[in-house]
Amino acid sequence: MQLLTSGEQTVNNLAAHFPASRSAISQHLRVLTEAGLVTARKDGRFRYYRLDPQGLAQLRALFDSFWIDELDRLVADATEEAASKGDS
Fold first, then answer.
1. Quick one: which H or E segment has residue 9?
2. Are 4 and 41 in contact (CB under 8 A)?
């Protein structure tokens, strides 16, 4: 995904950066497309992939929510532990 931050890339361009086969890179791109993180457009015999800003924003919101919830739990646990030590 980091390679796509500079703009559209073909599978061949992306595959040149990895020891994996072009087919394996295509499979990864298919998963990213199905997840809504990458979009593709066909131009002739080439397919160009790019990041999907909307999908990335949704992923970011999910991570933000996860960490906010985790931090809230951590604060609640710490507060509860401090209160229980204060009662001793």
1. strand 9-10
2. no
Q: Is-contact 16 22, C-beta < 8 A? A: no
Tokens matching residue 65: 């929510």
Could you give the CA distance from residue 26 to residue 30 in angstroms, rounded to a whole number? 6
SS3 72: helix
pLDDT in tens, 5-38: 999 999 999 999 999 999 999 999 999 999 999 9
DSSP for 22-47, please give it: HHHHHHHHHHHHHTTSEEEEEETTEE
14 CB-near residues (< 8 Å, 6+ apart): 3, 4, 25, 29, 49
